[in-house]
Amino acid sequence: MSGTAGAVIQARDISGGLHVHHAGPPPPEPGVPVPRQLPAAPRDFTGRAAELHDLDGILAAAEGAPALAVVTGTAGVGKTSLALTWAHRIAARFPDGQLHVNLRGYGPGRPLPPVEALHRMLSALGVPAPAIPAEPDAAGALYRSHLAGRRVLTVLDNAASAAQVRPLLSAGPGCLTLVTSRRRLDGLAVRDGARQLTLRPLPEPDAVALLRATTAGRRAGDDAPGLTELARLCARLPLALRVAAERAVSRPHLSLGDLLDGLRDESSLWETLSMGDDEEEDGVRAVFAWSYQALPEPEARLFRFLGLHPGPDFSLAAAAALAADSPPETRRLLDALVGVHLLEQTAPDRFELHDLLRAYAADRAHAEMPPDERDTALRRVLTWYLLTAETARAWVRTDGIELPLPAPEDGAAPLSFTDYDAAVDWTERERVNVHAAARAAAAAELHALAWQLPVVQWRGSIRAAPLAAWSETARLGLASSRALRDRNAEAWVLRCLGEAHRRANRLAEAEQCHRQVLALRRELGDRKDEAAALNSVGLVCLARRRPDAAVTHFARALDAYRELDLPRWVAVELANLAAAHYDAGDLTPADDCARRALAAYRDLGDELGEGRVLRTLSGIQRERGEPAAALESARRAVDIAVRRRKSTSEGLRLLALGAAQQANGLFGEALSTYDRAAALHRRIGDGGREALAWHGTGETCRALARADEAAACHRRAAARFHELGDPWHEAVALDGLAAAVRAEDPAGARGHWERALALLAGYGDQRTAALRDGIAARLGAAG
Predict the structure, then answer these.
(1) How far apart are CA 359 and CA 376, in angstroms?
(2) Is the pLDDT of residue 123 over 90?
(3) Structural class in CATH, domain 297-369
(4) Which CATH class is domain 49-198?
């Protein structure tokens, strides 16, 4: 393999990590998770036989094409119950998985953006978060690729619009997407072939049957006329019927007639207060008020507090913090609210309010709680999220940097964690709620919390969050930091925003943010944070293929960390310098920095850092004509990744191992290694690095004089790099393709080389210059 081709296999794995956007075909190989995400269907589901039959007909009519069904109807009519009941009945027809996403079209906050929904679904399909593109189009393409050739059922609940749903649709035959919405979503029918089913309130017999099923064994003697009247007052809506039935069960010795009198009075009040344009919703509100007024005050108080929670669901601990109550007492009150159907328990210690009930709880909070009490409760729960996120962060990132954070609020001590895994689990589970907390802080002008929340979340995340949400909360935090005129806060949020841009491959914007951070840190005279900013600018320069500039910034950061006597960060900068010198084609300083970084990581006992440097060192040794040493370094790097179960690092290091095996003439082993690397990157959704494995396979096939196979691999790699918008690697793959076809197709080879030269025109580093010179020489020799 040529030096240039070897550099292609040396995909970056430097400290701070460079994000590559990915798209690729799905893996049908073993080890891919099969998601089973359907929530439980209601046990007392009643009626809807005609609607279930209609849904069966929609599926049958698809005849192998991707099926799309939309269930619409008013709030509380039972759309989700019908969808889940039917989905469970047909789940066996979709053996490759069942996905479920609540699109939150009618909750208290914003609807779930499509890219965040794609992030969740791709994660469920086994794609690591860092491998999920930030751009909606790219994420959608990756999702469709993962569904190709599979039979997967996807339930998209509570959709706000056709535009929210469309990017989430599968394209392959054998898949079904089932959508629920209060709106008709006619655009899906017109453009996407959706079949619509409009759900009406239950027929009277079914409504009465649901009441009897819910109260069976817990009340006796309720007559049919009374139950019919109760069903009418509930507008025959399943949500209201269940709440009313539980209210009746809670008063077993009170006659149905007396219960009806109370509900009639509440219904009359709502009719007086409402505009009369939504009889069904008024009926639901009347039932809510009737049930709420029967709650003991402790339960009613907690219900009001829950109306202030900023996120879509919440844990027992969050509810206790919100209400400033003990977890045991909060659990008792939550169980009581679940028992009367004013709250849903979705998992152990996890709860959710139906959007209508959430709106009603918020209404009661604003009507019955003094503003100071509401403000204190909101600040208390937001502070709890912040400090718990920081506690988790301390397990994930131990960099010795401490943010200025508030003290815990009374009655809301943050959680503690016993180990790394528990901290990471909490961070991932509460990611959406922490984003929501940041938005709520900004809206309430709690400016300190508004900038601290996104920064703490960014520092504690081991996986990339959906970048749209990350960017949004960072921008809100930036506005808050500037409202406070806090330059330290502004620098922190700009760093967070710069990382969001970098991971989204918006490199110019990322560099602008990090250069602003650098200027602020110099203004503030903070040498340690200045060094961190220098490192961040260096990483962006490296990503933009400006290795000389990266070397300058890493060297300055190294000097600062040495002055500050921070050995871990000295090791990081030496490793980054090794990668930058290698990218620049300066092998002697690259080798020197890599060996010093390796010694530093070993002194620190940091095996993961050692593995990163060994992979870089393998590339350096290979290009310096030391193939045996390169092979040993690559093998050790892979062993560390496998032992530490770091699949992304393992894939990168397999690329280096394949290149080293080829350099040693171990062509059969190289082909096997590249195949293993391609399969691993395909499984985790890393299309760019999968293409690097294809390119390495092509190089190996050329060495074996298997020109046709080599050409196929290089052509496939070039096409993938083109899709990803990576012109440098596309040019390298085209160079390999031209070399593979020039004997049989000289004109085609010349075209590939000419295209490669055009793609490389915008780069000025030494390695690219050598690559250009080589291609120009080969083109000249081809005549």
Answers:
(1) 20
(2) no
(3) mainly alpha
(4) alpha beta
